[in-house]
Design goal:
Strand content: 15-25%
Oligomer: single chain
CATH class of the largest domain: Alpha Beta
Helix content: 25-40%
Structural class: alpha+beta
Distance between the termini: 19 Å
CATH superfamily of the largest domain: Glutaredoxin
CATH topology of the largest domain: Glutaredoxin
Shape: elongated
CATH architecture of the largest domain: 3-Layer(aba) Sandwich
Length: about 260
Amino acid sequence: MVMLSKTGSFQRKGWALLIVGAIVITGTTVGTAQEVQRVASLSKVETSRAAASKQNKYTFIMFWKDQDDATKAMWNNLQQNLAGKTDTTTFVAVNTNDPAEENLVKEYGVSRAPMPLTLAIAPNGAITGSFVKQINADYIQQSFVSPAKSRCMLTLQSRKMVLLCVNPGAKSGMPQGVQNFKAIPCYKDVVEVVSVSAGESAETSFLQELEVAPQNDQTTVVFMAPPGVMVGKFNGSVTQEQLIAELKKAGKSCGVDGCKHCKE
C-alpha cells in the first residue's frame, strides 16, 4: 500500500462547504402511509424543493427577515442569474418568521443565522453553497457540483465518513481493504463507499480538487471524515488495518464516535 497524502483539511477550493454552520441534515425511512402523510403536510417551499429534486434540479432558498437593501439586492441577483436556468434550477424566498415554513427553518438551523442567507440545495439534498448578505454569478456557478461530489458532501453533512474509490474503469471492483473496513460492525453504519470512474468527464473538476490523477492503472481511495477532514489518499491495495490506523491519527476531527471507540 502506498499512502498518497496525509491528514488535512478541505478548507480550500470550496470544501469548507461540506458542513455549513449549524445546518442539520437528517435522513429517515418511512413506510408508504407515513410518506403520504408527510407529503401532505409539506409547506409550499418544501413541496417546491421536493418537486425540483424529482426533476434533478437544484433549489436556491433565500432566507430573510427584513426587506432591507441587502435582501433586495440578493433576491435581484438570484432572479438575474437563475431566471434563464429553469431547466436546472428553481429559487424561492422564505421569511424565517413565517409559521408555515417553521419546519424548513428548523431543518436547516437558520433561525439565528445572519440574514439574508441563500442556501444552494442539490437534487440529492446536499447543501452545495451557503451565501450570507451577498451573492453573485460566480458564487451561484460554484454551487453546481458533480454527482460524486454531491454525494460525498451529503454524506459528510450527515456526519458520516466517505471512502471514495476512483477507479481506472467502470468495471473495476471495490478494493478488498475497503470492503473489509466497511464490514467492521462499528464502522459499517458510519461510512459510505462512493465509486466513480476516473474517466468520467463530469467528475474532472472534482478529481482535480482532490489532486487525484485522471490517468492511473489502479484504484485510488480517498478517505474523508466530517466535517471536512482528508484522512488520506491510498492506492487500491490499502488494507483495513491501514485505514483504521490513519483514522485513529485523525482523532476527534473525524466527528464520528466509531473513530474513538472502535477497537479492531
